[in-house]
Amino acid sequence: MLEQKKHTSGQFDLDMQHLFSLLLTMGKLVEQQLTNAMRVIRGDEGVDAQAVIKGDKQVNAMEVAIDEACVTLIARRQPVAQDLRFIITVLKTASELERIGDTVDKLCRTLLHNDIAKEHVVLEKMQLMAQQAIAMLHNSLNALNEMDLNYAIEVYAQDQQIDQQYRALKSEITDLMRANPDELERFITVLMCTRALERIGDRSQNICEFIYYYLKGHFPRHNDIQA
Q1: pLDDT tens digits for 106-140?
Q2: CA 227/CA 223 separation, integer angstroms
Q3: How far apart are CA 163 and CA 40, in angstroms?
Q4: Please, how many CA atoms are within 13 Å of residue 169, restricted to the half-sphere of its CB?
Q5: Can you say how many angstroms the Cα of residue 25 is from the centroid of all Cα atoms in its chain?
Q6: Cα gap 158→153, rounded to integer Å
């Protein structure tokens, strides 16, 4: 839970809390979009890829709303120190969430035009990687909600698991491409999807860095945020 010092203007406190609430709502929406995209990958007929794609417009609209709210707060209140760091953290986090939303959009668009269901073994490993990406995004949002530095550092370290999964899967897909040169398009699609999941891990890691920045007053150096 965000804890800000009380200001002489109660409206300023309300505006800051509203801004934080918008950010957390955007995070939940992006997390749901990612979860739905993974259901599309699994072939779940209960989720329409087109509906997930359309949901990206709502994510984009929320980023615009957050940007406008931040600009208004800066113009009206001219915040400094922790207040300014908070607004910068919100802006940067919203940007990362919007990019995750874009990644989800591209995943679904790719899946609509390419069939990867035949690659059962690779698909299973991709789903494990997706579960890790979803968990990491979820945990980074929890760390943000609590503004918990220790939790953020733990989540930050989870990206190593996604990176290892990506490297192993990339090697396996490359071998399949060499063995099946007539089916390169499908394997390239799979490779693009795994790369997208790896990038989601990176962006979740960035959110943890922003939490560090807000709480410590500077962005982490090389060994500052290792679990």
Answers
A1: 888 876 666 665 566 677 888 888 899 999 999 99
A2: 9
A3: 23
A4: 29
A5: 13
A6: 9
Per-residue pLDDT tens for 175-202? 988 988 887 877 888 888 889 999 999 9
Which of 15, 45, 67, 32 is closest to 141 using CA atoms? 32
Query: Other C-beta atoms within 10 Å of 153: how many?
Result: 18
The span from the CA of 177 to the CA of 186, in Å, is 9
- Sign of the CA dihedral with 22 first, then 24, 25, and 29 last: positive
| pTM summary value | 0.89
Residue written as tokens 């953290």? 89
Residue 51 to residues 40, 58, 191, Cα–Cα distance (Å): 11, 11, 24
171-192 burial, b for 16+ CB within 10 Å, e for fewer? ebbeebbeeeeeeeebbebbbe
* Higher pLDDT pick, 114 / 45: 45
How much of the chain, in percent, has pLDDT values that exceed 70? 89
Q: Is 218 exposed, middle or buried (0-12, 13-18, 19+ CB in 10 A)?
A: exposed
